[in-house]
From TrEMBL:
Provides the (R)-glutamate required for cell wall biosynthesis. The keyword RNA-binding does not apply. GO terms for molecular function: glutamate racemase activity. It catalyses: L-glutamate = D-glutamate. Its EC number is 5.1.1.3. PANTHER family: GLUTAMATE RACEMASE. SUPFAM superfamilies: Aspartate/glutamate racemase (SSF53681). Pathway: Cell wall biogenesis; peptidoglycan biosynthesis. It comes from Pseudahrensia aquimaris. It comes from the Bacteria. Keywords: Cell shape, Cell wall biogenesis/degradation, Isomerase, Peptidoglycan synthesis. Belongs to the aspartate/glutamate racemases family. This is Glutamate racemase.
Length: 260
C-alpha cells in the first residue's frame, strides 16, 4: 500500500523517519512542495487552493491508502478539505500543545512554529481546549524552516540567526521559567541539537513525529508480509540540486519527476 507523506520541504522527513520504523511493508512516497516553500507566509485561501490541486494530482497518480500531511502549516488549512474529498485516512500534524500542557512543571510553555501556524485559529483552538491552565507563548519564526533546510543539506548553520529565532521562547515569570518548547514545524527537529546548544537554559523540545506515526499506524492495515519496495520522493519544483538528491538517496528515497 502506498502512503503519501507531504510537506513544503524536507521537514516532513522527520515524520517519515518514524513512520518507516513503525509501519514496515508500506511504500512511502515523499512529496515536497518546494516550489511553494516556505508555507509560513502564505495567505490561507491561496495555500488551500494550491494544495488542493497538488493533492488531486497526487491521488490520481499514486492511489494512496493514506496521506500524512507532515507539515503543521499545511495541516492548519487543508485537513477538513482533504477529508471531505477522499475516503481514505488523512493524518495531520498538530503542534504538541496537549502533551506539553500535561508535562510542564513550571506552567510556562512555548510553541515555536511558522508565522502562519501561530496566527491560525486552529492553533489557538488547541490552546483553548487543552492548555487553558498553562501560560502558552506563541513564537512565530520567520526563517527557521529555511535555516533547517540549509543545515540538513550543508551541515552548516548561521547560529546567530537560530539564536535570534528562538530567543522569544524563553521567558521567566515570577521565578518560573519556560520548561517546554513545542516544535510546531516539522523542519525544526533537524535543528534540535543546535537549538539545545544555543538555549539560555535547558528545556524539553517536543517533537510530535513519533506520535503522528503511531496514530497513522492504527489507521491502515498492517501488511502480512514485508515487501521490499523502493520509497520515492518528488519535488514540485522539478529536479532539486545534486546535494538534495544525495541527501534523499542517503535517506533511501529515489527521486522521481513529478507532474504537479
Ligand atoms: N514544515 C512546515 C511545518 O511543519 C513548515 C515549513 C514552511 O515554512 O514551509 O509547518
Amino acid at each position: 500500500m502506498t502512503i503519501l507523506v507531504f510537506d513544503s520541504g524536507i521537514g516532513g522527513l522527520s515524520v517519515l523517519r518514524e513512520a518507516r520504523i513503525l509501519m514496515p511493508g508500506h511504500r512511502f512516497v515523499y512529496v515536497a512542495d518546494d516550489a511553494g516553500f516556505p508555507y509560513g507566509d502564505w495567505e490561507e485561501k491561496a495555500l488551500q487552493a494550491r494544495m488542493s490541486g497538488i493533492f488531486d494530482d497526487l491521488v490520481a497518480r499514486y492511489k494512496p491508502a493514506m496521506i500524512i500531511v507532515a507539515c503543521n502549516t499545511a495541516s492548519t488549512v487543508i485537513l477538513p478539505l482533504l477529508r471531505e474529498k477522499f475516503s481514505f485516512p488523512i493524518v495531520g500534524t498538530v503542534p504538541a500543545i496537549k502533551p506539553a500542557a500535561e508535562q510542564t512543571r513550571s506552567g510556562q510553555v512555548s510553541v515555536l512554529a511558522t508565522p502562519g501556524t501561530v496566527q491560525r485559529d486552529y492553533t489557538r483552538g488547541l490552546i483553548a481546549q487543552f492548555a487553558s491552565k498553562v501560560n502558552v507563548r506563541l513564537v512565530g519564526a520567520e526563517r527557521l524552516a529555511a535555516l533547517a533546510e540549509d543545515f540538513v543539506l550543508t551541515g552548516k548553520v548561521d547560529e546567530a540567526a537560530v539564536a535570534k529565532e528562538i530567543a522569544d521562547c524563553f521567558i521567566e515569570r515570577l521565578g518560573a521559567r519556560t520548561d517546554i518548547v513545542v516544535l510546531g514545524c516539522t523542519h525544526y527537529p533537524f535543528l534540535t541539537n543546535v537549538m539545545r546548544r544555543l538555549a539560555p537554559w535547558p528545556v524539553d523540545w517536543l517533537n510530535p513525529a513519533e506520535a503522528i506515526a503511531r496514530h497513522a499506524r492504527t489507521l491502515v492495515e498492517t501488511p502480512q508480509q514485508v515487501e521490499v519496495v523502493q520509497d520515492l520522493a518528488e519535488f514540485t519544483g522539478g529536479r532539486p540540486q545534486p546535494d538534495m538528491e544525495r541527501f534523499l538517496s542517503g535517506f533511501g528515497l529515489r527521486l522521481v519527476a513529478g507532474e504537479t
